[in-house]
Amino acid sequence: MKSVNQNLPKISIILGNYNYDRWVERAVVSVLEQEYPHLELMVIDDGSTDKSVEILEKYKAQYQYWNPRANQGHYSWIKEASDRASGDLINWLCSDDYLAPGALAKVGRAYFEGPFDVITGKAIRWTEEGRFETELEPFIPLSFEDIFRKGLGLPQPSTFIRTELFKRALPPPGLVNILVDTATYLRLWMEKDSEISSYVIPEVLAHVQNHHKAQTVSQGLRTKEEIKKIYSFLASETKGIKARILTERNRLHHFLDRLEDIAAHPDKGLWKLLQLFSQYPEIIYQRSFWGAVKKKLY
Q1: Is residue 162 part of a domain?
Q2: Residue 147: what are its φ and ψ, rounded to 5°?
């Protein structure tokens, strides 16, 4: 067992926090209690005004990187720490989420047997009050096109990526602040496509806290704008069928946003609706359009 431990990969975990003194200690302890032999824990407090820094300071001797700084946003702390990361694998935790016991050992052993570009597993999502909500099952697409047929089901706190690939796939500054995982995963698959080697651990690796202050919940309008920026940017980085798929998705999101606006203002009338369809005539022939409509209805 000793020789296996010596050959386990180094795993870089980035922990970012902003005003989550309610949960931050649980997050950092969930990493430290892994007792993983080759851990690089990088912690950034992004300008908290509550008791977060005081809590995090208690454990700073066990961090390989520690920076309590002024607020700069979600993407910024991931970028700052990942630029310095030296692990074979990398992942990040928002401080309202936490690792399951033994998660890193399972990931490390899987990489040792591989190695793999992407290792992922299940995640449990809890309500703000701590009640079980759902179990998030990972789905790894077979190709870039498969993402848009079946989805990209990677629970972010449970998904570990080879650091070299992660640094290449992380989008440039200014593109996103909230949907960092979406942009990074799409960019990774766009570049490597079906060459990605992956492994799904059929166990729970992390827990996700669903609450009203979570960025994807509290900043819904910004996420809608970011996804369109992501598709537009990625389309400019590629060509052929991938560029076409991304452009179609971008137009679909523009269409759906305008459709929601018309639905929210019935006084705009049928004419506005007909005018909208005339500007996006190809939309009704896309399977993704009818999938989006089904989601809205159900």
Answers
A1: yes
A2: -60, -40
